[in-house]
Each structure stands twice: as C-alpha cells, then as structure tokens.
Task: inverse folding
C-alpha cells in the first residue's frame, strides 16, 4: 500500500509540475490533460510536503491468487469511522473472543490522523489550527465528519464558518477570527471555492484557492488529486510504480481494458457477458454494467452506448472475489467482501492494522458500496 | 469556540425552554378543561396563543360559554393540537423539540454523548405521536412528561457539559427565552386584569400561574393562602430567590455575559452588557415603585428582544471589520 501511494503522490506532483511522465510517453498526454479530474488551477502550485494525498482509501479484493486493487480513493475517501465503530461494537459484544485473538488496534487512527495533518502546517507551528471542512449536516458522511473532528480535536467547520482575508483563511470563533493552518477537507473539488470552481457552490469558501496557492493554508487532500484515481488512469498505476520508484508493483491491479483504445473496445464488446464495465469518472457503485446480470437485449443496447462514447468507460473481468460468512436474517450465509485500508501520508506513511470491510448484502451481489445498500464488518488483523 | 457552534447551543437552550414553558401552560390548560368554566378555559387559550405570539391556523379563538360543551371541547382539541404537534406552528412543542434536536444534531461534537442520547430519546418518544394519541389517554401526563424531559436534559447538561463557553451559551439561550416568555406572559396577564370580560377570573388565574411556575409553596410560606394579584405578580417578576422569576433569569444572564468576557464585536458586546444592566436595574430598582406596571413590562420586553439582537451581533454573526483577530 505504501509503495502504491508513494507512486501516486509522485505522479500527481509530476503532472501538475514538470510532467515528466507525460513527456516520456509512459502515459498518453491526452489521457491526463483530457481527464475531467485534471485541474488546470493546480498547475505549478507548490504542494505542502510534496504530498497531495495525505489520506488515501484503497479498495482491495481477494481473488484466488492473492489481493488485487480495485480502485484508489484519493479525493475524499470515507468509511474510516465505520471501521472504528464496527470495532467498538465487536469489542462490546464478543469480548472473550476478541481478547483471545490479539487483534491489532484500529482505534489509534485518530492519533495518527492528527499527527499526519499537523505535518502539513505551512508555518510549522507547535500548535497549528486544524479544521475539518464538511459540506454540512445533510451530507451522507456527516456522522463521519463529526466523528473524525472529535477524534483529532479539530473544529468541524462549514464553508460559512471560514473566510479569506489578505490571503489567509480565518474561522469565526466566539473570541474573534482565528487563522487556520490546515484544512482536512471533506468537500469535493467542485465545491471548494466558488471563485475557482462551481460558482453556485455555497459549501465552499470564496478565495480559498487563492490562499492555498499562496501557501498560507494546507488543504488535505489537495485539489486535483482525482486525476490519479480516475478509472482510466488506474490502469497505469503499475507503470507509475516502475517509472517513479524503479520497483515492481507488490500489489497487482485488476486487469483493465480501456475502451478508448480500439483493441480494448473490440475485446469489451465481444466479451461483454464476462465483463463489468464502469464509467471512468464514476464512484459509489453508480453506473456499473455487469454483463452477466443482463439480458442479450440489454447488452446490445449497452454496446451501442459504449461505441458512441468509448472514452468514458473501462472494462474489467468479473472477479470471483472472496466471501465471508455473514449473519443474514438469522442465518449464516456467504457474502462478497472487500477491504478499504486507509493510508495516511505526511512526512511518512502510516497505517492502522485494519480496514473498513464492506459486504454486498443481497445474495450473489458483487456491489459492496454503502450507497448501494452494502453492509460492513469488523476486520481483524491478528498479531500472530 | 466556533461562532456557529455557540449559536447552535444558544438555540438549543432557547427551543427547549420554550418546550418546557409551553408544556407547563398546556398542562395547566388541560387541567382547566376538567373542571373550569368556559370563560376560564377561553382565557387560558387566549393567554397561551397571545403571549407565545402565535395564532391558530384558520381559527378564531372563541368563548364557548354561550354554546355548550361539545363544541368547546372540539375546539380545545384543535387548539391543543396546534400548540403540541402542528409542525407549521413554530411555537408548537413538537416543532420546538425538533428544532432543538436539529441544532443538537449539528453540534453533536460540542455536547456530551449523554446529552445527545437524552434529547434523542425524548424526541423519538413524541415524534410519531398525534393529538389523538394523547387526548383520550392522559394529556396532562403527556405535558408533565415534556417538562420532565427538558428538566432531565438540563440536569444531564449540568452533570456532563464542560463549563466553558458551551455551557455559557446554552444557559444564556435558555435564560433569555425564559425572560422573554415570562415578560410576555406577565404583560398579557397584567393587561387582562383591566378587561371586564376577565374580571371574575382574577383569583383562579393567578393561583394557577403560581402553581405552574413552582411558586405556590413559597408564596404560601411568605404571604399566606390569600391570593393578592399584585403580590403574585411581584413574586413572578421580581423575586430574587425564585428560579422561575424574571429577575432571577436576568441576573443569571448578566453573570453569564460577564463570564464570557469581551466579544469579537466589541461594540455589540458592550451594548449587550448595557441592555442587560438596564433590564436588571429596571426590574430590581424601578419595578417596586412603578405605578404603571404594564408600561414597565412593555419596556422590559422590548429591551429583552434587543438583548438577543446584540448577543447575536456580538458573538455569532459579527462583521469581519468589527472583529478581533487572534
């Protein structure tokens, strides 16, 4: 995981800087610059610690011969609070079992997160002002935002609590305006700053990007990190690892067909029944086309759609991902699971011995996303 | 602390105080429905709606003295619903409870988990109820339980909330709401004493108010069993030892504002302190000798409303140019 995030961070710094990887033809330039997640405003910006992705949640699945990376979540990865809440529930209900297995601790995540965020302070002060920026109470992950703010002892702020003055970010407190050093933002790029991105956004802070570009405040994760977790870029991560680190990838990708490539498109169209097709900019399990679950007519209709806009899709084989026993309606039944470990990177990379484990609740389903009705389990990494 | 969090805590205090206050008077009104005359019941509804500064949707407040019990009870059923469960009515118990909880939901990281659990349990107990559910069972118990819910919540706050600004803002909200509602109530009460229609109600009503605000025992202890309206009003307005009196609340607000210290917007902070000073002086020093109590209550009510505005401008919504930079 650490190897992978190191390469991804180098890639992001590179594409918004000298773009060596593009000049050397490792990744086609149009795949990057034409990607909707590419943020022109980040070009030439000095990123604190040269670490655009301080918090990464990478989705792993286990197949017959080991783990595979399904995708990297580099923008605003969520779910870590459920990892901790699941652990607390397990510890309460299975105390003896838990003690017997010597399970590694996940509850120190808050401390690690705080240490990581502190390292991003542009002023290097002893007691930086760290805030967590949330879209607000109506966001589906608000519980997590609140939970994490509490864990790291940060103020949970909304855009309306912050303002930019003379290139610095301040928050409104009951004692006056307090300068903010580090923003752990849980607001998508598009809504961060109405002066740079969506003009109709009321979730962001006008002038925030200006303060960020001047180096007066750190944003974690940095804007524009979506360029590296776009599904069409995912296929190049093994190449990035070789290019930047001169190492072979330890964790393997799932075989991926880029429909923008004519050969891959033909393969996808010929083998639609054995493939799952995903929109490149999608997330949350939305827009997936699982060929095996569809009728011939549906596959034909989708083939037409694919031919009309091949750049927007990738295809991957349907994996026989591992299953775990689950307690479903008073029975133990097998369900597909995946894992999302969280990797924190500041001056160094840190992980807790656990992950957010998601399960696909409907029988036979492969879709584990919480937004699609997925469930969760406590994952134990045992000491021995 | 974040200004928005302080504001949220302030409004939790205000909304829950309103729940408690309305529930107390509703309990009184439900008791009145058992054995009081329609004149007395009509007066009770008028007092509730007028001092809460709300009115029933599509309805006039009618005195059913001339028309008989069945219509009067039907009307009371609708009016009780209005002040208990109608969400469109911003003063209804459910509406205030919902708003108090919504503020708490957004401020969960600022309050103790015990406070959240307590408030949430109380909210879920009433969320799906309707007036039909309580009317035929025990409406009096329902309102008494709401008072108890709020008291329990405040007790849990007292036991678990860290005594920093969070505590101060929650208390200031609660106390300002109490002062404003009591001033409005006393004002209505005082004005109605001059209306012929309510002439006969005087004795009944002052006693019920004493009971409602837990002042009956203290009153009997110090003044005996004879109800003297002026004495009752003096007690509810200016008694320094009665926790539900206006004077008591105002003094508590002054203490809390002083504990907060300088506001980010100095000008409004100073104004808030001046307004509370004037209010305290008005009730403590001018009230006992005032001939025109109605005028005095009107002035106090207006000052209390402005006090809220200055607190909001000083601590919650201050202008950037006015503010202190840390």
Result:
């Amino acid at each position: 995981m650490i190897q992978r995030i190191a390469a991804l961070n180098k890639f992001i710094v590179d594409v918004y800087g000298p773009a060596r990887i593009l000049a050397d033809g490792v990744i086609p330039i149009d795949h990057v610059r034409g990607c909707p997640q590419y943020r022109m405003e980040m070009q030439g910006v000095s990123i604190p610690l040269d670490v655009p992705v301080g918090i990464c949640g990478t989705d792993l699945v286990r197949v017959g011969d080991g783990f595979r990376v399904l995708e990297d979540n580099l923008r605003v990865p969520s779910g870590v609070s459920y990892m901790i809440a699941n652990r607390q529930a397990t510890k309460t209900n299975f105390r003896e079992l838990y003690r017997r297995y010597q399970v590694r601790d996940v509850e120190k995540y808050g401390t690690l997160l705080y240490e990581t965020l502190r390292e991003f302070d542009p002023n290097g002060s002893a007691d930086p002002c760290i805030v967590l920026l949330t879209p607000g109470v109506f966001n589906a992950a608000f519980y997590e935002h609140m939970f994490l703010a509490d864990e790291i002892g940060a103020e949970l702020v909304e855009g309306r609590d912050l303002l930019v003055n003379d290139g610095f970010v301040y928050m409104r407190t009951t004692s006056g305006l307090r300068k903010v050093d580090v923003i752990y933002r849980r607001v998508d790029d598009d809504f961060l700053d109405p002066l740079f991105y969506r003009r109709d956004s009321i979730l962001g802070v006008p002038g925030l990007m200006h303060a960020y570009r001047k180096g007066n405040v750190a944003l974690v994760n940095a804007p524009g990190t979506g360029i590296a977790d776009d599904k069409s870029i995912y296929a190049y991560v093994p190449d990035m690892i070789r290019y930047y680190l001169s190492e072979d990838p330890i964790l393997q990708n799932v075989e991926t067909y880029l429909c923008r490539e004519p050969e891959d498109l033909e393969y996808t169209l010929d083998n639609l029944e054995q493939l799952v097709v995903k929109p490149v900019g999608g997330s949350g399990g939305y827009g997936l086309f699982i060929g095996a679950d569809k009728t011939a007519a549906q596959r034909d209709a989708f083939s037409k759609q694919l031919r009309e806009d091949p750049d927007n899709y990738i295809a991957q084989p349907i994996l026989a991902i591992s299953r775990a026993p689950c307690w479903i309606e008073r029975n133990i039944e097998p369900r597909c699971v995946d894992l999302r470990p969280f990797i924190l990177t500041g001056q160094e990379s840190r992980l807790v011995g656990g992950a957010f484990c998601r399960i696909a609740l409907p029988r036979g389903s492969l879709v584990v996303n919480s937004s699609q009705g997925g469930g969760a389990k406590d994952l134990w990494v045992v000491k021995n | 602390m974040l200004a928005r969090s302080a504001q949220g805590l302030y409004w939790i205090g205000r909304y829950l105080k309103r729940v408690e206050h309305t529930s107390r008077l509703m309990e009184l009104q439900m008791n009145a429905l058992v054995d009081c005359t329609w004149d007395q019941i009509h007066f009770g509804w008028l007092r509730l709606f007028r001092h809460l500064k709300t009115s029933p949707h599509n309805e006039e407040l009618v005195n059913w003295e001339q028309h008989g019990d069945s219509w009067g009870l039907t009307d009371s059923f609708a009016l009780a619903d209005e002040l208990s469960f109608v969400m469109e009515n911003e003063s209804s118990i459910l509406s205030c409870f919902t708003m108090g909880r919504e503020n708490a939901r957004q401020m969960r990281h600022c309050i103790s988990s015990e406070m959240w659990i307590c408030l949430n349990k109380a909210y879920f107990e009433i969320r799906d109820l309707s007036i039909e559910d309580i009317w035929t069972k025990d409406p009096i118990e329902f309102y008494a339980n709401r008072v108890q819910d709020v008291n329990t919540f405040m007790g849990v706050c007292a036991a678990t909330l860290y005594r920093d600004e969070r505590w101060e803002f929650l208390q200031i909200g609660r106390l300002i709401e109490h002062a404003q509602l009591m001033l409005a109530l006393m004002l209505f009460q005082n004005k109605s004493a001059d209306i012929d229609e309510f002439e006969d109600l005087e004795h009944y009503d002052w006693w019920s108010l004493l009971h409602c605000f837990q002042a009956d025992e203290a009153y009997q202890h110090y003044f005996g069993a004879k109800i003297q309206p002026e004495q009752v009003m003096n007690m509810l307005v200016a008694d320094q030892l009665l926790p539900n009196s206006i004077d008591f609340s105002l003094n508590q607000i002054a203490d809390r504002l002083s504990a907060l210290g300088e506001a980010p917007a100095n000008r409004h902070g100073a104004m808030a302190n001046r307004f509370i000073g004037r209010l305290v002086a008005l009730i403590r020093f001018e009230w006992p000798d005032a001939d025109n109590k109605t005028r005095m209550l009107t002035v106090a009510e207006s000052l209390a409303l402005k006090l809220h505005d200055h607190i909001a401008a000083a601590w919650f919504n201050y202008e950037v140019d006015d503010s202190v930079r840390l």
Chain B touches chain A at residues 1-6, 102, 105-106, 108-109, 165, 169, 260, 263-264, 315, 318, 320, 323-326 (CB under 8 Å).
